[in-house]
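Chapter summary example: a protein plus adenosine-5'-triphosphate.
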Amino acid sequence: MTGTPAVEVRSVRMVYGSGPSATFALDDVGLTVEPGRFVALIGPSGCGKSTLLRLVAGLEQPERGDIRVHGVTPAEACAAKLIGLVPQSPALLPWMSVLRNVTLPQKVNRRAAARRARIAGLTGRQPPAAGPDMRELLRRAGLGDVARKLPGQLSGGMRQRVAIVRAFGLRPDVLVMDEPFSALDEFTRESLQDQLLDLWEESETTVLFVTHSVTEAVRLADTVVVMASGPGRIVEGIEVDLPRPRRGQLLGERRFHAYEDLIRDRLRRAWHHDAA
Amino acid sequence: MTATEGRAVPATGEEPPARRRRPGRRPSVPAWLRPAVWLPLVVMLAGLAALWQYGARRLPYLLPPLRDVGRSLLDNPGYYVHNALVTLGEAVAGLAMGFAAAFVLAVLTSEFPLVRRAVMPVATVLNVTPLVAVAPALVVAFGFGPLPKLVITGLICFFPILINTATGLRSVPREVLQVYRTVDASRVELLWHLRVPSALPFVFAALRIVFPLSVIGAVVAEMSASGSASGLGTAISVASSMNQLPVVYASILVLALMGVLLLSAVTVAERRALHWHDSTRD
Ligand SMILES: Nc1ncnc2c1ncn2[C@@H]1O[C@H](COP(=O)(O)OP(=O)(O)OP(=O)(O)O)[C@@H](O)[C@H]1O
Ligand SMILES: [Mg+2]
């Protein structure tokens, strides 16, 4: 893999507030993600995972340091629609049908396509072909029958799937997800993880995925980034060298648990370090 | 008589769940035919009527017998219909003007903090100024034609719509805004696709306050313009100066009915426009 990384974060510091009450949400954070990788961020509550995602998505400006998405600033990346965001809540518009909800982001900011082609040209990638068939995408996510329903008529898991389809409909180069499954029960969560992986594997998208679940991180990610707080920072990046698809048998095997134990150990250390 | 109720949050679960009647479940009687629904109101009205009649017998100079009020209505329906239409026209036209001005200003204040800082203090002062006191001055300024009536009605309706709409435009959840900011939606796109639809429940809450107010505004304006020729407010002024009590109360009754009608119209429109909103769900 040569060329521009999909995401590059260099010695970023993020401070909320000022004076003695200032919170160092992030300090000296560096992270490089190659295109097409699935990266999970895990760490104790308040360590700055969401903040890091917001910075990458251009929703906030760092106090210090530099962030690039495919070689351009997050603001330029947003203007070219390189980024798809899946927040913790589905964030759907209650007055629009599911189908219109997932197509609206494609309809706004029409000039993005040209910008996107130019940025892709700079880094020698192919810009995605014309907009995907959203009905087909909804069907693939098991939402074919509810395309005309309103979000209020769906279950929580269905709404979360709609939010994921909405992000994938943009064919984003970088998909940014903040604990998208944390409000779901275990079975729904597993089936959504499978669907997410299916979509990811054929889309060549880079994924940044925040989670609180060690098992979810090991199951999904190529790299698990462990963070600690006070100030928020990255402790370690752990490569998960397990074959895909990671389902069934593999989840019970020793090598799977070994990764879980390793991550738990790093989290515990980070936590003790905080407490000390 | 000014809009002191200014700000209102969309009501939830206030109306009976008339929408989406389930067929097959209870096939026999519609809900409103059941005595438990209509009987309390009928008893209440009968009690009030009896009280009224008793009062009319004791104080014949203050209260006309209901029979006289009814006869006045039936003998002269054209008179009441004509005056009601005049007042209704003033109320609705004034409300439309106030609505247009308030909506545009709400959009401007929510988009530009500078405008907000300039407009809000003035609007607040306007809101606490009793319009009944201002009305005569406005009549002097704008003459006896329809214009002062529209201005007064518009002013009465202005503030509740401004405050509610401005609040509604800012009610888009943060995460929704974040999703659309990562695709760099323009301000106009955010306004049109997210902010205005999110404001609708608030706008309807304002309309519920403002429709009855608009009738009040029109009547106050008619009463302040001593030379005005028609309208229920004028009818009341004229009739009370000539001591025609039945006409006064018949006009008041028609005004009340008009208010109820307008309010029901808002409710129906709200049910249609906000079928997706929790406040219209069963
Ligand atoms: N808008 C804000 N204003 C002030 N402080 C903030 C703001 N957002 C985050 N913080 C602070 O920054 C730190 C990191 O917050 P962040 O939300 O990124 O944590 P997190 O790792 O996502 O936590 P969680 O796992 O609970 O979601 C916290 O100490 C928080 O109090
Ligand atoms: Mg978070």
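Key point: Residues 144 and 228 of chain B are 6 Å apart (CA to CA).
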